[in-house]
Amino acid sequence: QESGGDQQEDDTGRSDNTIVVYGRGIDRNNAATGLDLTPRETPQSLTIITREQIDDQAASTVADVLEYTTGLSVKRVDRGRNLLSSRGFDITAFQLDGLPFATGNVGLEESSTAIYDRIEVIRGATGLLQGAGEPSASINMVRNRADAHELTGKITLEAGSWGRYSGIIDVSAPLTRDGSVRARVVAERYTQDAFVDLESSNGLTLYGTIGADLGETTRVNVGASYQRVERDGVMWAQLPFWYADGSLAREWPRSKTTAADWNEWDTTEKAAFVNLEQDLGGSWQLRGDVSYFEQIEDSKLIWLWGNPDKVTGLGMDIWPYWYRTHPKQWSFNLQVKGGYNLFGREHELVVGAMHNNQTSGWTNRDPVDGTVAPVGDFNAWDGSYPEPEWGDRYRMSGFGTTKQTGLYGVTRLQLLEPLKLIAGGRMTWWTRNEEEALYTPEAYTIEHKGVFTPYAGLIFDFTDNLSAYVSYTSIFNPQTARDRNGRYLDPLTGDNYEAGLKADLMDGRLRASAAVFRVEQNNFPVADTGYFVPGTTDPAMKPAQGTVSKGYELEVQGEVLPGWDVSAGWSHFKARDADGVDVQQHQPRQVFRMATKYEFGGALKGASLGGSLRWESRPPQTAENPGTGEIEPVGQEAYVLVNLMAAYDITRQLSLQLNVNNVFDKAYYNTNSWFGGYIYGEPRNARITLRYAF
User: Fold this and answer.
1) Whether residue 103 has pLDDT greater than 60
2) Which of 341, 569, 581, 673 has the most CB atoms at less than 10 Å from its CB?
């Protein structure tokens, strides 16, 4: 959104006070500590993906955005879900407008980007505001606000490969003459086939919000969203990696599927929120939040596994599965923040309380005995497989309530003119009450009271543009993984350390950072090979002690030259247990991400070129060859993907954009875990976008 006032344009057509571009223009951020800090004042690695970058990349979902974010790994579990990770640990910490929410089986990263203004990624442990969680990263999805004092809007139409058609309308308007009450409405509708046989989807997203100024000191925002995605013919299982004789089964076409033509995987998400901000005088402010999120997932699928005979295609097994879940979450936050004077210097303080309540669980319907047909020749599999008869629905696992209450406080002390200390902590009360189900033969309660999570960061300003920092926080994450005896593993515990340099360059138009980190963790769950949790088909886990992840990250974001925006980052880590064995073997250890755009001036004013690039090293993943019994590497070899973008402003209001992804049509597989197979990444594809702003 452009700010008001007189604006001067440079040769590229940009106004000098518009500037919300690649990581720049978001001057303050509170996702890491609750304090309103600039990125350079934040003693952790921070990446901000703005609306402009999302549009340039034609990123339809949050996962599309994260694939090109520094330090993150986005891998597919199947064609319906992703698994996100960073620094050797899974990402389970999500926030909606700063309030924590647990991600689901089909994660929050599958949300449409149409309703978000930006995505903020804090890497490392974020227990101060998040509470229990992994030392990986926290992803804060910031919703669009109703802040327009005159009628504005944007209509977006898309057409692309595999029958993609999409339309988005985003309209903002004042509801009162003085603009004290404002509204914003977003609607999206799309339909999409896929490069994988049988697969198709269609979706609907609706979002509405109202912002109101209740006098000069009180502001309130309310809103709600609805997202429905219907997916047919979705591939759940992976393509076999080996034939029965141990030779590589790598000749499957990228369109090959393991799905049946009756597969379905539908999700419905509903969310609502209320936010109240009250100025208390001076710099002090009171904030209260109530937010709700629920998801309904209904998935009727088949799982194929095994190693088929190379000639006959026989040898594959099948498991039909009809899963349904309906998790619901509430999140509450009450916070006071402001500045105070002590020893002649100005300092800041944030204190608050949070409470989260989540109910979850899933049911299943098994096929009736004798109605499951054999797979037959997998070489000739085309999905025309008869649907079995289904038995009654029953409670399978996960039924219960998770509650987390936290009291937190943090202050920023101006120790010296160039030296600042951020110090604080959180007390957490965490309870999980599990009810009886098939995979939970006995009800149980896991409870942790008064767990203290300290946080400390020290920032030293060498100049007005260059700072160094160190930070520390502890790790606490209860887990429901079980061992071969059915016992629940102890919570993950440990310490997270980070140090780095941050610089504001080019008069603040370019930000650069370098960070090193070390994570020490105990009770990390690793597979207890060959064992299952008693009474279930869940693989048994065992706690790994002395797990250490260490590495470094480099990142630049902003405008390197007038009209040329860049967001680029390199990350490297190693993660091993006390015996020197790699953990999270499916994650690449080195990753390079880049997105860029150049806006032409002069005779080519209105035209822009850009794109994005992703390079990943080969992960240290291994598995046993079924034919030879030898342990072999199975991770995707190092690869690079290149995407291109070209856009032209036909008028000041109308623009046309072309995106071509995987320009060189690289064939690669993009799999997060090992189930004896792999999933292909997307081949070359294109999308044309027409935008009209008013």
Assistant:
1) yes
2) 569
The pLDDT tens digits of the residues spanning 37-96 come to 888 999 999 999 999 999 999 999 999 999 999 999 999 889 998 989 999 888 988 999
Q: Which residues pair with 275 in a beta bridge?
A: 221, 289
Q: Which residues have CB under 8 Å from 22's CB, separation 6+?
A: 50, 52, 53, 557, 558, 559, 565, 566, 567, 595, 596, 597
CA pair distance 18, 9, nearest whole angstrom: 10
Q: Is the dihedral of CA 530, 533, 539, 541 positive or negative?
A: negative
Cα 674 to Cα 138: distance, rounded to the nearest angstrom? 25
For residue 125, what are its two tokens? Answer: 């442990």
Element housing 286 (H / E): strand 284-306
CA gyration radius, the chain:
25
15 within 8 A of 8, measured Cβ to Cβ: yes
Distance CA 134, CA 131 (A): 10
Q: Which of 147, 176, 144, 281 is nearest to 218 (CA)?
A: 281
Strands 547-561 and 539-544 come out as: unpaired
Q: How far apart are CA 2 and CA 678, in angstroms?
A: 45
Task: Output the pTM of the full model.
Answer: 0.91
In this model, does residue 499 exceed pLDDT 60?
yes
Distance between CA 48 and CA 20 in Å, rounded?
A: 11
Structure tokens at 468: 């160094």
Work out the number of other CB atoms within 10 angstroms of the CB of residue 687.
Answer: 18
Structure tokens at 633: 């590497």
Q: Which residues pair with 402 in a beta bridge?
A: 358, 432
Give the list of residues 6+ apart from residue 188 with CB closer than 8 angstroms, or none.
Answer: 112, 114, 166, 167, 168, 203, 204, 205
> Stretch 403-428: mean pLDDT, rounded?
95
Q: How far apart are CA 477 and CA 523, in angstroms?
A: 10
User: How many CA atoms lie within 13 Å of 521's alpha carbon, on the beta-carbon side?
Assistant: 34
Candidates 389, 244, 385; CA nearest to 318 is: 385
CB < 8 Å & 24+ apart, contacts of 445-454 = 446/478, 446/480, 446/488, 448/476, 448/478, 448/491, 451/427, 451/476, 452/425, 452/426, 452/427, 452/428, 453/127, 453/128, 453/131, 453/425, 453/426, 453/427, 453/428, 454/424, 454/425
Residue 416 neighbours by CB under 8 Å, 6+ apart: none
Q: Which amino acid is at 276?
A: L
Least confident of 26-35, 239-248, 567-576, 604-613: 26-35
Residues 6+ apart with CB under 8 A from 151: 171, 172, 173, 174, 694
